[in-house]
């Protein structure tokens, strides 16, 4: 859920990755970011409840999920500028570490958790697919709230999304292939159509009509949030009968996956001595996933039940991300005051 607050934060971040000094613009961006992170999980939770309570309302909507994801990724592209890629050139080591940590830690955790909990093949494949997805679209906003290195967060999230067609399918085949058949070639095509092309299209439109698009930036995160909510409702509705028996186990898997990802991502930054702000960014770039993409791919290539972990992850990682960001921000302010 990239937003105007992301752009404001990234544009005004210091080299140390700290948020800018107090100003009306910074305060406004901070309020917008907090509203988005607070309202988004509530909206998605309401959408999930709607899907569970009235599954018939969303029957037949499943074929539209890839198109809905395309809308989300197009909105993401509209928020991007060439500056988002500049961090790769300025800090290639840090960005490379973030990418390796993301695409090693989360897929590996997904496989370990699926086996440790003895998940059914459908749920195991779904958890692993969440782990193999690129960074979550709200990770940079949460990094900003945590007083983290926003520039690094934006770079890692952007590059992980661009690399998804090359990385996500083979990783899914390697780790989830023991549970279900995986058509990696078809998955590559789907990611290109629903992720890369819309992102590139949005970026081109931003370059061509930047002034007009800038006026709409405040609306884009909300459009993305509503669209993700619809995806969650469709996924939950398709698995409504199975949720009653599997909900607790899926929630446990998601909480472990996300929590360990946040912790290990932060630890990777510390071990690499990237500094506290960059380590905070690493936590969210590793622990937060593009669950909308995972849900779309799971529904298309596996089953609606396999998409359930992604739907639950979509709610949980925003709740946990906001809480961890608040804690990190409090600690950073306390140390600065001390």
From TrEMBL:
Location(s) in or outside the cell: Membrane
UniProt membrane topology term: Multi-pass membrane protein
Keyword check for Transmembrane: yes
Name assigned to this protein: Bile acid:sodium symporter family protein
Organism (species): Streptomyces malaysiensis
InterPro entries per record: BilAc:Na_symport/Acr3 (IPR002657), Bilac:Na_transpt (IPR004710), Na+/solute_symporter_sf (IPR038770)
Membrane-spanning residues: 37-58, 64-81, 93-117, 123-143, 150-171, 191-209, 216-240, 246-269, 281-302
Keyword Transmembrane part of the UniProt annotation: yes
Keywords for this protein: Membrane, Transmembrane, Transmembrane helix
């Amino acid at each position: 859920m990239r937003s105007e607050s992301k752009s404001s934060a990234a544009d005004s971040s210091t080299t140390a990755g700290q948020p800018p000094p107090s100003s009306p613009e910074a305060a406004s961006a901070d309020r917008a970011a907090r509203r988005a992170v607070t309202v988004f999980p509530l909206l998605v939770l309401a959408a999930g409840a709607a899907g569970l309570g009235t599954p018939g309302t969303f029957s037949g909507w499943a074929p539209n999920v890839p198109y809905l994801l395309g809308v989300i990724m197009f909105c993401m592209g509209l928020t991007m500028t060439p500056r988002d890629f500049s961090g790769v050139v300025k800090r290639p080591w840090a960005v490379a570490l973030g990418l390796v940590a993301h695409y090693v830690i989360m897929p590996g955790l997904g496989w370990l958790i699926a086996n440790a909990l003895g998940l059914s093949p459908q749920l195991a494949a779904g958890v692993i697919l969440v782990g193999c997805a690129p960074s979550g679209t709200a990770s940079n906003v949460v990094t900003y709230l945590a007083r983290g290195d926003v520039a690094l967060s934006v770079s890692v999230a952007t590059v992980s999304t661009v690399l998804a067609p090359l990385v996500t399918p083979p990783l899914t085949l390697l780790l989830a292939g023991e549970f279900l058949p995986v058509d990696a070639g078809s998955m590559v095509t789907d990611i290109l159509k629903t992720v890369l092309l819309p992102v590139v299209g949005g970026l081109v439109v931003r370059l061509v009509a930047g002034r007009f698009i800038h006026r709409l930036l405040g609306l884009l995160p909300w459009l993305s949030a509503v669209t993700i909510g619809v995806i969650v409702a469709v996924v939950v509705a398709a698995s409504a009968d199975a949720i009653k028996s599997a909900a607790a186990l899926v929630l446990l898997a998601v909480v472990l996956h996300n929590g360990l990802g946040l912790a290990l991502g932060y630890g990777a930054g510390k071990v690499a001595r990237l500094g506290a702000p960059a380590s905070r960014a690493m936590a969210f770039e590793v622990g937060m996933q593009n669950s909308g993409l995972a849900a779309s791919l799971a529904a298309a290539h596996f089953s609606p039940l396999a998409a359930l972990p992604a739907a639950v992850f979509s709610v949980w990682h925003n709740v946990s991300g906001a809480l961890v960001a608040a804690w990190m921000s409090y600690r950073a302010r306390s140390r600065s005051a001390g």
